[in-house]
Amino acid sequence: MHNDRMKPVFRLVCLALAAALTLAGCGGDDDGGSAKDGGSSSSGTTTGSSESGDATPGPGDELALGETAPLTWKPKADLEGSVDVSVDRIDRASIKDFAAFKLDKAMLQSTPYYVHVKAENIGTTNLSGVDLPLFLDNGSDVLFPSAKITAAFKPCPSQPLPKKFTAGKKAALCLVFLAPNKTKLEAIAMRPTDEVEPVTWTGKITRPVGEKKKAKSS
């Protein structure tokens, strides 16, 4: 873990789309590579904290894929949650996967990423339907939230935490992020508020499992 890089306060950018799809951000470049360096906010308050010599990741730490970080935050004014979160895999996908959706020019020039996340409810509250404060960091001063896909999207559903996500429950999620044109994903950032430095995950960017199988059979 590293805590030697302070980032400026980020702006949160959201774009609304038609055809039952809301995508945040737009983008991309490059096939493969790695995510480097490392949100902005849900309406919340705190994250896990770490002191010198403490192995628990905290604000400003940079983690490898698969490592777990604690998060305590307020996704709603009357709800506080505590979860353990890990970003396990980042796939660079193709905008062709979204052929069934109506996309504008900026969207068509974007690069989608499928980010595979695991979460465990380590608190006492029911976090059903809550979005984790995870964002795409492309190295700018803007953090891009995940897409909200209300229609069925098999490659990567990009849904919030499932129903009955109560104490002790675990969930595996796939979230869609778009990097703006001529940029690429450098890290996935977890940032519940603007006042807290994000925890970031970086690592090797892969291709979706389905694409790997197609490549082997062709």
Beta-sheet strand percentage?
A: 25-35%
Largest sheet: 11 strands, mixed
Report how far apart the termini are: 40 Å
Structural class by sheet pairing and helices: mainly beta
Rounded average pLDDT: 80
Instruction: Tell me the number of strands.
Output: 13
Radius of gyration computed on alpha carbons: 17 Å
Low-confidence stretches are 2-31, 37-46, 49-53
Shape: globular
Helix content: under 10%
The figure for the number of domains is 1
Number of helices: 2
Order of helices and strands: EEEEEEHEEEEEEEH
Describe this structure in words.
It is a single chain. With 218 residues, the protein is mostly beta strands. The protein has one domain. The chain contains 2 helices and 13 strands, in the order ββββββαβββββββα. It has helices at 105-108, 209-217; strands at residues 11-12, 21-22, 33-35, 62-64, 68-76, 79-92, 111-121, 134-137, 142-145, 148-149, 170-179, 187-190, 199-206. Strands 1, 3, 4, 5, 6, 7, 8, 9, 11, 12 and 13 form an 11-stranded mixed sheet that branches. The chain has a two-stranded antiparallel ribbon with strand order 2-10. 40% of the residues are buried.
Sum this structure up briefly.
Helices cover 6% and strands 35% of the residues. It has 218 residues and is mainly β. The strands form 2 sheets. Strands 1, 3, 4, 5, 6, 7, 8, 9, 11, 12 and 13 form an 11-stranded mixed beta sheet that branches. Strands 2-10 form a two-stranded antiparallel sheet.
